[in-house]
Design a protein that fits this description.
With 235 residues, this protein is of the alpha/beta class. It is built from ten helices and eight strands. The chain has one domain (42-227): Rossmann fold (3-Layer(aba) Sandwich), CATH 3.40.50.150. The longest helix has 13 residues, at 80-92.
């Protein structure tokens, strides 16, 4: 029954105007047709563009789009069964400033042009804890350098995770690659969130499905905010 429902969701998503599902050959060592054109061809404005990488059900993308209609949001994930929920909610509630891109994040450079993205959110990614999995970590060397290809010079990257290993690993990688750390806390709701401005508190108050599960179990939420600094990475 679950398999049938998943197939129905996949079929329904193909009819959604706010979902883009490029074929492998359109993004693998190639530029996707929307690269550099998201604002002009889909959103029809020049508002800031924010990505949520590994968006899952799209809670952050949809939540931020509702709170900030003067900004554009794109949730990126390969798992369409989860993405269906966020995309459908956005259509049902007429949220026009959010879209969803179903692709592997490894191909992200082929989807966004230089300086096209203002901000990136990485919300509770798989920590990939084994050494051989480092290349899959969204704050690992391969990805942390990729983001510079399309993130504006003054753009910011936000990370939320409950995983101690991943938080500390990300903190070291951010430093190693010359990013400037703007905020770093290993207990976001316990001691830090009241220090942020009202807008940031509003954003951080949005909780994904996984975050709600983690906090219910008493896990501390770690938060990291950083931006390009113009330094060359250390070897």
């Amino acid at each position: 029954m679950a398999g049938k429902r998943k197939l129905e969701h996949f079929a329904e998503m193909k009819t959604f105007a706010n979902v883009f599902e490029p074929k492998l050959e359109e993004v693998f060592r190639a530029d996707y047709k929307m690269k550099g054109k998201w604002k002009s061809e889909f959103f029809k404005n020049d508002h800031p563009l924010i990505l949520e990488l590994g968006c899952g059900k799209g809670e952050y993308s949809v939540g931020m789009a509702q709170k900030f209609p003067e900004r554009n949001y794109i949730g990126v994930d390969i798992k369409g069964a989860r993405m269906w929920r966020g995309a459908k909610t956005a259509l049902e509630e007429n949220i026009a400033n959010v879209a969803f891109l179903r692709t592997r994040i490894e191909f992200i450079e082929g989807c966004f042009a230089k300086d096209e993205v203002d901000e990136i959110w990485i919300t509770f990614p798989d920590p990939q804890p084994k050494d051989r999995q480092e290349k899959k970590r969204l704050t690992g060397p391969l990805f942390i350098k990729r983001y510079l290809q399309f993130l504006k010079e003054d753009g910011t990257i936000h990370l939320k995770t409950d995983n101690n290993f991943f938080y500390n690993y990300s903190l070291e990688e951010v430093k190693r690659h010359g990013y400037e750390i703007l905020e770093a806390t290993d207990d976001l709701y316990g001691e830090k969130i009241e220090d942020f401005d009202e807008t940031t508190r509003e954003i951080l108050s949005i909780k994904t499905h996984y975050e709600k599960l983690f906090t219910a179990k008493g896990h501390k939420i770690h938060y990291l905010k950083f931006k390009p600094h113009g330094k060359a990475p250390k070897d």
